[in-house]
Design brief:
This protein is of the alpha/beta class. A hairpin with a 2-residue loop joins β2 and β3. A 7-stranded mixed β-sheet has the order 11-10-7-12-17-14-18, sandwiched between helices. A 3-stranded mixed β-sheet has the order 1-2-3. The chain is 25% helix and 29% strand. It has 2 domains: 111 residues, CBS-domain; 222 residues, Alpha-Beta Complex (Spore Coat Polysaccharide Biosynthesis Protein SpsA, Chain A), CATH 3.90.550.10. It is built from 10 helices and 19 strands.
Length: 347
């Protein structure tokens, strides 16, 4: 598939553009790629993977795209056949390939058919929906938090619909508090066009303990997502990132900035080395979404309570490869009544 040239222009950036502008470009065009050009000449490409790598390296969002663009991009010459483009994209496992002229000018771009017809994934997805939602009391006194309404649908239904639209239909829901309400609402998942199975926690097992009871219908890597998290990330990109990096456990993380309200003084003995007024510190927070290799379940004790941070520490101690997937997309954790009210206004 090719796109109209006037729309392609919207995906073109200059070297003077910033990473922040590249993020906005990717979100606005939906093409999953943007092109850095000098006039018509293509200098490099940028995908969300390039941006995530830049974030991991602590690049400022005001940094020029020239510093993070992929200069060794794969391209195809003008006049090449659709079949040639599809063969290259399939071989190199990419979704887009730019078409260039003899002077390397950007002419067009081929897209893999998977963009128009999303791939179906058999990888299981576990949605954690067993918590009491204590910070949302009294709203959750008679309704589990994942079933609280948002735009006429339960919060968890928005998550399931997004998964389905991305090709993930093999869904498990971990339940404990008011479990029957969730089961009665979703049943087998047929009404939503997905398959839903349930992991019953007879006692609360923390945010990771239910994985010891997870009995998947295949041995594929699986995704875990909190039942109160709404996000614009692509679950398929997350899974591919996890697989490409040959990770045992991948944690989605979100940038969080903390402003120190005071001036910070660095000293060397009694001498002042520097004074920084109200410095801004960047950290990463756990976004409540993960990908795991199927085999990691074996290190968990059955029906033993354990939370995700402790599980990742255990995996690290046992020398499993654990990595982060930094996100810049929208992310909302509906943790308390104030946040729930705020989300409803935003939506």
């Amino acid at each position: 598939m090719k796109i109209k040239k006037n729309f392609l222009i919207k995906a073109v950036l200059k070297t003077s553009n910033s990473i922040r502008e590249a993020i906005l470009n990717l979100n606005n065009t939906g093409l999953q790629i943007c092109f850095v050009c000098d006039g018509k000449k293509l200098l490099g490409t940028i995908t969300d993977g390039d941006i995530r790598r830049a974030i991991i390296k602590n690049k400022n969002l005001n940094t020029s795209v020239k510093e993070i663009m992929n200069k060794n991009y794969l391209s195809i010459r003008e006049g090449s056949t659709d079949q040639r483009a599809q063969t290259l994209m399939s071989y190199y496992k990419i979704n887009q390939i730019p078409v260039v002229g003899k002077n390397n000018e950007l002419i067009n771009v081929f897209f893999a058919e998977t963009i128009e017809n999303p791939v179906e994934y058999n990888n299981p997805v576990i949605i954690m929906a067993g918590g009491y939602g204590k910070r949302l009391m009294p709203l959750t006194k008679y309704c589990p938090k994942p079933l609280l309404p948002l735009l006429g649908k339960p919060i968890i239904e928005h998550i399931i619909i997004k998964l389905k639209n991305e090709g993930f239909k093999n869904i498990f829901i971990s339940t404990h508090y008011l479990a029957n309400m969730i089961k009665d609402y979703f049943g087998s998942g047929n009404k939503l066009g997905v398959s839903i199975n349930y992991i019953d926690e007879n006692i609360p097992l923390g945010t990771a303990g239910c994985l010891s009871k997870f009995d998947p219908n295949n041995n594929m890597d699986f995704i875990v997502c909190n039942g109160d998290v709404l996000t614009g990330i692509s679950f398929s990109k997350l899974l591919n990132y996890h697989l490409k990096n040959k990770s045992s456990a991948t944690m989605v993380v979100k940038e969080h900035f903390f402003q120190n309200p005071f001036g910070v003084i660095k000293t060397n003995g009694l001498k002042i080395k520097s004074i920084t007024e109200k410095p801004l510190k960047k950290t990463y927070i756990n976004a409540g979404i993960y990908v795991f290799k199927n085999q990691i379940k074996k290190i968990l004790k059955k029906n033993k309570k354990i939370d995700m941070p402790d599980f990742f520490r255990l995996l690290t101690r046992k020398k499993y490869k654990t990595i982060v997937f930094p996100i810049f997309e929208n992310w909302i954790d509906i943790g308390d009544a104030k946040e729930y009210e705020s989300v409803q206004k935003k939506f």
